[in-house]
Structures
1.
Amino acid sequence: METDRIVLSVSDVRYEIAGRLLLDGLDLSVGAGESVAITGPSGSGKSTLLMCLLGLVRPQGGRIVVAGVDITRLRERALNRHRRDHMGMVFQFGELLPELTPLENTALAALLSGVPRRTAYADAEELLTTLGVPLGGTPTAELSGGERQRTAVARALINRPSLVLADEPTGALDGSTRDEVARMLFSVPRQWGCGLVVVTHDPAIAGRSDRHLHLSRGRLNDAGTALPGTGSTAGGAIR
Amino acid sequence: MNMLATYVRLFAIGRAAGRGSEGHGLRFTSLLCATFALALAAAVLVAGFAVYDGRELRGSARAPQYVGVADPDRAPLLVQVAYDDVGGAQRSIVFVDPRGGGVAPPPGVERWPAPGEAVLSKALRADLVREDSLDRYGKPVGSISEAGLEVPGERLAYVRPASGLLDPGNMTTAAGFGADERSVFGDRESLPPLSAFTFLVVGMLLFPAAVLVVVAARSGAAGRDRRVALLRALGAGTRARVVVNVGEAALPVALGASAAAVVVSLALPSNLTVPVVDFVLPATDLRRWAPALFAAVLAAALAVPAAVTLLHRTGRAGHGTRPRARNRFTSRRMAWSCPVFLLVATRGPDLLTGGGSLWFLVYVCGVVGTLATLPALIAAGVSALGRLLVRLGNRHGRPGALIAGRRAVAQPGVTARLVASVVVAIGLVTQIQLNTSLLNDAMIAAKATHERIGDSMLTVSSAADQRQNRAFLRDLPEGAQGLALEVESSDNRSIALYGDCAALRALNAPCGTSTADPADPRLQELTAWFGGGAADVTLHRADPPERLAREAERLLIVRDGGGDLPVGEVKEAAFRNLPAPQVMVVAGEWLFGAAELRDPAAWTLFLGVIGVGLLAFAAAANNLGDFLRFGRALAPLSVLVGHRGVFYAGAVWAILVPLAAAGAVGVLVSLWLAAPMTAKGAVLTWSFLASLLVLAQILAVLFWWWGSRSTAAQAAGWRPTAD
Ligand SMILES: Nc1ncnc2c1ncn2[C@@H]1O[C@H](COP(=O)(O)OP(=O)(O)O)[C@@H](O)[C@H]1O
Ligand SMILES: [Mg+2]
């Protein structure tokens, strides 16, 4: 897939917490329509990286440019607006409201972003249909795990984000459902023209991405050549 | 030593667990408030015992030691207890006559008043000043100090009659003051027994406080449960878990108990006045009972951590979001029977002719049934309104309405419990208040009489002789006329009035013998109260004192041309000229009976409002805990879209509206249920209902703000967690 437009560009990000240097001059670039999977040992800082990308955590150094804007320099209000307009996120446990229907869960994200009601519901309906979520009045709590994660993806996409982040999106699923959700998830960038960054510890899932990176010692390396010391990052972290 | 160190550490873990858990603010505040409420309720109960104990002490110290003496003139002391209406209620006037110097004055009185002087308690003096009749019983000298009063606010007078007004034949001989039995005079006659007070405090303070303790103990338990589960997994025993639990509750409990202790301490140095009921707390009694008071506070402070430990849900399987307790709160049959019961309560009694116990039985069945089935109806209503909210939210794109509606549909029990407890509490308290104020038929009739003729007619009875009566009639204020009232109480009752021409003219009668004009409202009331309703009143021209000396029972005072008499002046004349006179309006004894219900009713009202407030607080705290869990689910989305307003909007529908509506529905239902009682003369105090309503609205706004703020703050601090 062509990466015609860069939606995420991370350069030289440093993040230190509790005396540990979690991100150490980290670089990453994701184009529109491209999917990137990040794996790494537990505690290596994958979730922390996603939080930096979301702007929920401010790195001590470096630049994070999302859709052309360096979010490390944005004030709270502007950052909130930028996150709302350009980023979507899929969580491990979905984090949907269990009492609401999938349609309402999806439309709610649009409504809260100030999208007019009619558009919000129409978009939500279209997205859910495309993603194969039944549109009945069933509360989200009573859906299957796979349907729930599809709804979560729909919610992440409803505001037409440039960048979609996912933290262990299949972590709570089993076997076949996991594959099915992964397939759907990795089809998102092509279909909606956004960038996708997925954090996972499952190599099988990571294998479906356009690029598979490995986080270790605070840097991202191409998973194929993820050996410390080797500078070769063929198609890896581009700057 | 090692053991101790372990426990200290566990205690610290508990404290940290409390601080770290979600809904921590709510739990902290609820525990603090619950401890404060429970400690204060317990202290109020003990204070009640202290005051009644003090009444007993001082009441028996001033009780006359009655002794049988053959010749009353040789008794050391003569005592006579009389009553007078001051400030709309009956007050004790104790006539005393010490013979010789051997008898000490009653407690609280420094020296014996001279003949024609009176010693008044402060409260009675204030009442008399208000009626502009301070020297009604004689020249006031000094006042009865607190040592001589059962409670500081008691109305009491010791009066030493002028020598001419002594009536030894009607006085009791005594050796002095101080007996085993409490004195019969003072305000004790209108005082409900200690058991009634205990019942009131237990029902309206202790019970709601206990409910609040339970809610507080169970609120925000999620984070705590995790740590305790971890402790158990690490092999910690029950005792260790108890220490953790106690450590977690220690700070809020200590703060709540300290606050209660401060309030108790404030009442010790000097007499405080309880607002609303206007009762002056005797600090002496509270000081005497201080150890028990603080023990009550301490007991409450211990009971709360005990409740936290006992109510700690261990081993409960997961907290699913699936609706629970459905059957109990959505039973259709229960919901439908509620209006039927309401109909039974409000219309049922009408179908029965007359009143009596069957009337009451039907009414009580209706009320109990209504209040018992109301929660089901409310739950059904909550579900229905929830669905409506969902539709509205979807149709107009209102996130707050949508999510609150879905919550109500999925878990109507949470909101229904909130509304139902407030509504039922208001209903119950109103019923209790109605019952306290319920007058008997005679009281209602007496009130009606007083409304019709006011103070236009007074009766005066005493053991006066002709000379004294004559002096009294001469001493009457301008425009007041006296007649002798004679009631023939044979089979054929008849009433006769004897007066001079002026007095007969005041009743629009000719100067001679005649049958009274039955249209005169005053004479109608006289017939009703003294003649069994059927008697004729005959009027005669005669000298009243002469008739009285023979067989008449009392004097009737009326005013020229009708209108209210100057009651204070008539009374002053009576006490100046007659021995131990009783001056009152027709059927006055029933009016006193009605007035005696006022104080207990005020207490019911006061404690009732507090009790409803506590229950509403508990219900709202419970609801708030649930809303916080709900807000936690909404946090990720709110962070992603950078939107906090949704918590405020959601809380409007989840907290503000239900609580405010609960107050309104409670008052409405109470009004409805009260109708048959008010028709029978019970008084539904508007200020009472208004305070309940206002209280609910204040709590609604308070909890709305609290819920919105804490869920918004919770969301602000939210970070995605995944491994
Ligand atoms: N706020 C924080 N305070 C202290 N340590 C933190 C904080 N946030 C993250 N860490 C630490 O940083 C490390 C990386 O965490 P995380 O990004 O969640 O790793 P991963 O998702 O790769 O498993 C962990 O060891 C964690 O303990
Ligand atoms: Mg992680």
2.
Amino acid sequence: MKNRIEIVGVGMTRAAEEWELGLLDIAIKAAGMALDDAKCDKVDAVVVANALGGALGDQQNLALHVASGLGLEQVETFSVSCDEASGGSAVRLASALIVSGMHETILVVGAEKTSDALPDMLETVRAAGLDSANETSFGFSPTIAAALGMQQYLSTYKLDKELFFHIAKVAHAHGATNRNAMFRWTLEPAQYNKSPIVATPLSVCDNAPPCDGAAALVVKKASAQTSRVCILGSANVAVEKGIVHPITRLSLPAATESAKAAWSESGCDRSAMSFFELHDSNAFLAILSIEAVGLAEPGEALMRAAAGDFHLKGPSPLWTFGGHKSRGHAPGAGGIYQIVEAVLGLRGDAGENQVLNADKAMVQCLGSFGAQAVTHVLG
Amino acid sequence: MKPNLAVGIVGYGGYVPRYRIDAAEVNRVWKDSAMPSGRSFKAVPGPDEDTATIAIQAARNAMRMAQVSPAKLRAIWFGTESKPYAVKPTSTIVADAIGALPHANAADWEFACKPGTEAMQAATAMVGSGMAPYAMCGGADTAQARPGDILEYNTGAGGAAFILGVAEESLAVLEASTSYVTNTPDFFRREGQPYPSHGQRFTGKPAYFHHIQAAVKELLNETGASPDDFRYAVFHQPNYQFPLKVANRLGFPKEKVVPFILTSQIGNTYSGAALLGLAKALDQAEPGDKILLASYGSGAGSDAFCFTVTDKIKEIRERGVPIDKYLKRTKLIDYAVYARYRGKLRLH
Amino acid sequence: MQIAKSWRRQPSNLRLEGTRCTACGHLAFPATIRCRQCGQAEFDVYQFTGFGEVVVSSIVYEAPRDFGEHVPYCAAVVRLEEGISIATMITDVDPEDVSPGMPVEMVTRRIAAQGDKGPILYAYKFAPLLENQ
Ligand SMILES: [Zn+2]
């Protein structure tokens, strides 16, 4: 990639129910951490990703308010809302602004505040990223769609539901040592099996827990001799919307194409990746993502998880800080959390969550039930 | 009364929800020593059903049988006392669902349990005057009853729709119809009240019996027919005993009436009751049969009709959905589920 | 209260009307205003038959707002006989009795009512074929 972007600072709040802090507070907190990490007090633009705030009646035009709260004056601000692909999309926008020469240094923040909404309201608002007239208004939500997808996956490949334990297990094994994670414990089969059903066969434990959280990056045009983590390639691909497509086809063409394009731009391929951060807002999208980017053959994601492929010391480490499942799922911020965690892993600053000798990572977030996929290759 | 142009039924359809509650189950909760004797069930609408959805399915079944273009229906008139909207017609929803809009008259009729037969008379007049090639009329209800009221043992849910057209295309031709109406407050529901009030035994002799007998007698006078000329007779059926008793008083033997008393299977479906009975009679009628229909609506009045079945019935009826399909499709629920489905638990 | 939003969907919600592209024949449900296959903008109204079969189903125990009073309900993907798959609810059946391949037909039901004061959304659900019930 000719116009590389380097990530000069990162920050994130713990994923949690932050009763004392509002949406703007956590966004400013994470942004401040990233600016401090970058040792930077001036940026040209602020891009803020948020999926639900507007629909939940929270702050609109968030980027302006974040910039103002940080005391950043004379900056250009953009608010990005692409459902759960907001984080990745915000980084793409920042990259474009830099590559085009419009700006040099940009603060990218992802923030979400879910705990102010009651659960049924939150589920309704999360569903607004689906087709509003044909899916949401008929009572469908990402969770119900995921349940249908899991059922279709299990019956198509003739698998037992218990195998989904291994997906959650990987995430929890890694999240247990992440001090920013919401659920810092390892998961036992008995606990998984008694988890209450939300929509058959999906149980609470197959869904990433909604939480409050914000993560931030400071990015700039990379200098030729930089030793910092860079964006080596990226792509944002949209395909035909509709929950019926992933459910009936058991594939995510947007995820596959977006990964291919990002790898192609980076000049490396899957085998060069030290670890992966994929979109695990629910177990169904998690396994389809795994298969879409080639970490498992179709129908084999659960077996690969059971075989230990995705553990920190396995051949394809995945969700190195616990993913959305164990760290917590702040929908509009998720894509930024993934990148911040990947940067820590590539810097060698991941502590107990470190993948040894990590030098490249692939990060992907999905929007509108997989109809949109944003991939970043970092290294 | 008879139109200038001969008019008849070119298609009909009924609908009854799937759920049933046993009257004994109602009594398990309320322990009324005066509970009606004999085993009986009533139909309960599912949590996603109401009068509009019941009317829509009945209308669709009627359209399927009649095979007429919905654009040729000039009227879609449904009678009910359980409108989903207090203000906003139910009939426009039904008409939209079957594709009959916009060049049609759509209105809701109200006369306790007999607005469907009033609509039938009006539809007869509309077709019989040459104003319309076809008109749809019907009645549907999700009957209301105060929990614990004697009505609760058998307030059911269901409906039926009829498409009227010229006699030549009909499966049954209307010979004559009469109405007998007085100002009798035997049963009523005040605006804004969820449940009706009734005059207990006052709903019998001066109300149900007096009006039906008067309307039917006038019909027999007008047509010169006697009870012997009828193969079947269908009466409004608030319970099992009333239609049997009124048939007896009018001289119709039990066997001509019993097969069309559906109350022990689905309860009193109010505006749907007499019309579902008529649909059931047409389901088994033979060419040449005469059928008597007498509705009753509190407040009070009765409409009586005389139909003669034509030899087209077998061919046309084939295309429809027999009422028996719905009578046999049952899922028994207990009082708790019934209370939930009928919105008797406060959720908001 | 989004009255106009459901009003403009009534042809598809109540009658299962979609569009058929006059240029390429592509069927769309619900109706579209520009053919996603060929880009043309002229359509005939296409009346879907309302018959189809269950592809996959789920019993929903925790529902989004306005749907809680129906739980447990059956959510499904139904493939219409014209080949289009739609997300829909299955009614008139115990949810555990729904299985892939089950023939279903369209019925019109109350989808949501927004409490006691809002507009009632009437639209399609699917039920097992009556002759099989
Ligand atoms: Zn086309």
